[in-house]
Amino acid sequence: MLVSYNWLKEYVDLTGVTPEDLENKITNAGIEVEHLSFVGEGITKVVVGYVESKKPHPEADKLNLCQVSLGDEVVQIVCGAPNVDAGQYVPVAKVGARLPGGVKIKRAKLRGEVSNGMICSLSELGVDPKFVPKEFADGIYVFKDEVVVGEDALPYLNLNDYILELDILPNSAHCLNMIGVAHEVAAILDREVKYPNVDLQEEAASVLSKLDVKITSGAEKVVPYYGARIITDIKIAPSPAWMQNRLIAAGIRPINNIVDISNYVMIEYGQPLHTFDYDTFNSDQVDVRLANKEEKITTLDGVERTLLPSDIVITNTQKAVAIAGVMGGSDTEVTSNTKTILLESALFDARSIRRTATRLNLRTDASSRYEKGLDYNRVTAASNRAASLIAEIAGGNVLSGFAECGQRVIEPEIINMPWKVINDKLGTTLTSEEIRDILVRLGFDAKIENEWMHVLVPTRRPDVSIPEDLVEEVGRIYGYDHLPATLPEGTTSKAELTPYQKLRRKLRRYFEGKGLYETVTYSLTTNEKAKQLTIDESTLNDAVKLKMPMSEEHETLRMSLVPGLIDVAEYHINRQMPNLAIYEIGKVFKAQGSQDQLPNEAEHISGLITGHVHDKSWNRAPETVDFFYVKGVLEGLFDLMGVSNSISYRPAKRPDLHPGRTATIHLNDECVGYIGQLHPNVQNDHDLNETYVFEISLAHLRDQDQSEITYHSLPRFPSITRDIALVVDQSVFADHIKQSIQEAGGKLLSDVTIFDVYEGEHIEEGKKSIAFSITYLDPERTLTDEEVSRAHDRVLASVKEKFDAVLRS
Amino acid sequence: MKEKLLALKEEAFALIENASDKKGLQDVKVKYLGKKGPITEVLRGMGKLSKDERPVIGALANEIRQAIELVIEQKQTKLQEELIQAQLESETIDVTLPGKSIKTGNAHPLTSIIEEIEDLFIGLGFSIAEGPEVEQDYYNFEALNLPKDHPARDMQDSFYITNEILLRTHTSPVQVRTMKKHQGKGPVKIICPGKVYRRDTDDATHSHQFMQIEGLYVDKKVRLSDLKGILTVFAKKMFGEDRDIRLRPSFFPFTEPSVEMDISCFKCGGHGCSVCKHTGWIEILGSGMVHPNVLEMAGFDSTVYSGFAFGMGPERIAMLKYGIDDIRHFYTDDVRFLEQFKRA
């Protein structure tokens, strides 16, 4: 809503209140002033001039030489406007003047003739061309009212005005009109609202001789009231400058006096009005009904619209002549030939209008007001105001009364509440009188009766209906600045992170300490990527897709985090950053159960490492990531969670991963993730070097977190370590041998580590040698050689039996 | 005899002085103090001396033996020191060379902001509540006083999966779910962080996915002034002790009254600059008193309980705090961007 500061002064005394004051006060009381601007910004030295004479430029067909009086001097101005003429009063930018856009007016010579200034068009004075009245669209502006030559032209053009642009939220629709804004400002300033003085002289003849109104075919529910007046003998002409200027300030292009008046009153009262040419309306019967299926109407903008039975139409009983509350039809448009008009002032259901306007993508000044709700009790006042202006400006005769149908007067709502609730909710200590005063300033009728308060809410405030609404009204006018800042008096409570939230933070810090950067990527991805590199391969048909995606890039919810990390890696390699270590914690999604069941959401942790894990330095060769580096990072993670002993790795072949360098990760027997190198084809597709990825389902691990600490006292007796190298078939898995050693070693075995793996020279073809360091320990006493040997022999026997392992000599 | 002893002493001292290593010293020691050494020999030949001479020479011989031992010891220490000195010199390095780099990563800036806010509110007795990112229309809208035909829940603004299921547009459904769990009994004190989604075309200031962090406090006798108090604590901790806050009336369907909170500009201190668009104030979050309809729908008696809620965007806070100009940076994950928040 664009509010003209000058126009607002009509309704409320703004003495001593600058536009900047007003901006702050309105914003602080609840309606944000998004923008305050001075209309004549950047304009200087533009005065009223009188064109004394005009003669053609000797050297140029389209230019005229005008002698223009500026009061204290007469100057020659070369003017190219087609509508310039002797005897006109015009705005003149004098030599040295400035115009919007940084234009500076200098003395000039045009084809040999001196020009001392410029006669201005409205757009040269900063008026948006789309608001310039047609009569001045292609030329200079010409004053019609009485003006004084030589005076500053800005006030005559209302360019000395300020515009406040209000951001109207759903609860402030009452400020979509000047009177509503006046009420708001009056409440803030504690001043009175002055309503327009309406002095309507009606003819003796009744409107009913020419018109009847009915609401039919189910439209009764969505059309509470429809009223129409008939005004005869009007003369269509441009409206007076003051009205044109105010409409321009409000962002509406002046058209002619009738259209302008209905727009003017809509801005003033908030009640949309519509005018039909009574002669082309071609009926003495208005029938307001629901549209027929596929009914067609060509609206004022020349577009043919197809309607649905949920749309309300105004008809002359034969055909639709307007889409109610949205836009009129072109057949009954007011034209320069119009003599008699039908002036509509009606109420339509907000939701219905919103549905229609949204579907037709046709938001008009009228529909946006209907959508947000009107003051039902202004429907008559607005019609009266418009009729009196038409009589005054367009010379019309107003037939007496209304042709109407429906209920015109709505009783205001009453809110009964203990007045103390206001203080309880705000934390204030206002007295009942202070509360009542604020409500009265807002135009609410408030009565205090002991503990109770009875508030009559004016119909212009449909947003106020419950006690909390009054809490807000009192609070905002009292001023939130004046509220104390208190701390809650309720029960004090202790709070901490849940174990899972703690674990998540621990994991983050762990990966960051290991050199990985945390990333956040999009949950929505392409349908293809959503299904790539999932932990659970059996659920690919359960991808969750959007009903109406905005693009293929973001149409399906991811089932794995790794594809997003691959995109991040590709981004880096394309920018010459081949070394990258990243991780992400985020949710993956899969459908479950029936359509109306929410998808399953599981939090995963995923990582990607490519390139150097240590850069080349003066004292170190670079180290490139390999499978075991990444595995080491994960082993540390599982150790941190206390689940190392339950975790195993199994070789796996999966799409998009290297078939010989991939393992699924199992917690006991359940697959909870994978680790592997990206398949070389995938690497090539993304221009990546050797790249390793992993993904683990945190949801599966969260319940297994055994990071609780069980303390073991330090060993008091020495341990004994024996190293052995075993030669086995290449196909034997090291971890299987290790497990077998652990089982065979019994109680005394405290640790097994693999310190060498070798194949090649001195080892039989198809075999490999794995060296283990086995540590034996008895926490209770010193071990004897015989005891260790017994255990060690069991170990050797076991691996011989299970893997045909031979001690390497 | 006496002369001979003194001469031996001089001789030994000279040899000790000239010894260049441990071995040389050992040789001297053996030569002069050993069983076959000249001093032992002198002592052995004492029998030939007169009664008067014997103690004098004996004492002298012992004295010289001790003197030689002492000098050898001193020389030994000196040699040892020289040895260490030489070693230290040979081991000297250029300490200005760079260290072996140990790479460290760091948290995403949004995580840092969220954790900071979480910790602050945990200190104030709030727990962290989480919920699904794909939500029922009911929890996302209806239970928050946004009935079916409310403009704010236009199909065009949200990512729907089915007519009843959508990607949550805010973390407020977590508030509803948590309140329902409490079965009408307060207090409820929670912070709800998480990802949310809206149908926006990604550009410098819009993202179809972003973070939100919301707070909810429902109890008997919660007042708007309490919200002001809590938010003042938050603003000072988050943006600096000398921040002022200002509440401005606003509108949200799920709160009544609704307020927006501004903080005095942390860049210019409120005098006006480009960060605060020359107003001195920066809009930080939306909040208000929980709408009675929302309380009732979540099973709380709105005549007994009241509450406040607030919500903010970690992206916006990070952008303001660090002067980040494009919201897409948070989701591009360029390490040159990420690594700047190591100390966050």
Q: Can you give keywords for this protein?
A:
heterodimer; A: about 800 residues; alpha+beta; Phenylalanyl-tRNA Synthetase, Chain B, domain 1; OB fold (Dihydrolipoamide Acetyltransferase, E2P); Phenylalanyl-tRNA Synthetase, Chain B, domain 3; 6 domains; 7-stranded mixed beta sheet; 6-stranded antiparallel beta sheet; 20 helices; about 25% helix; about 30% strand; B: about 350 residues; BirA Bifunctional Protein, domain 2; 2 domains; two-stranded antiparallel ribbon; rod-shaped
How does this model look, in words?
- The complex is a heterodimer of chains A (809) and B (344).
- Chain A has 809 residues and is of the alpha+beta class.
- Chain A has six domains: 2-39 and 162-189, Phenylalanyl-tRNA Synthetase, Chain B, domain 1; 44-157, Beta Barrel (OB fold (Dihydrolipoamide Acetyltransferase, E2P)); 202-406, 3-Layer(bba) Sandwich (Phenylalanyl-tRNA Synthetase, Chain B, domain 3), CATH 3.50.40; 413-478, Phenylalanyl-tRNA Synthetase, Chain B, domain 1, CATH 3.30.56; 500-704, Bira Bifunctional Protein, Domain 2 (BirA Bifunctional Protein, domain 2), CATH 3.30.930.10; 720-807, 2-Layer Sandwich (Alpha-Beta Plaits), CATH 3.30.70.380.
- In chain A, the strands form eleven sheets. In chain A, strands 28-31-32-38-37-36-35 form a seven-stranded mixed beta sheet, sandwiched between helices. In chain A, strands 3, 4, 5, 6, 7 and 10 form a six-stranded antiparallel beta sheet that branches. In chain A, strands 12, 14, 15, 22, 23 and 24 form a six-stranded mixed beta sheet that branches.
- In chain A, helix 10 packs across helix 12 and helix 19 packs across helix 20.
- The longest helix of chain A has 19 residues, at 785-803.
- The relative contact order of chain A is 0.06.
- Chain B has two domains: 2-90; 109-341, Bira Bifunctional Protein, Domain 2 (BirA Bifunctional Protein, domain 2), CATH 3.30.930.10.
- In chain B, the strands form two sheets. Chain B has a seven-stranded mixed beta sheet, with helices on both faces.
- In chain B, a hairpin with a 2-residue loop joins strand 6 and strand 7.
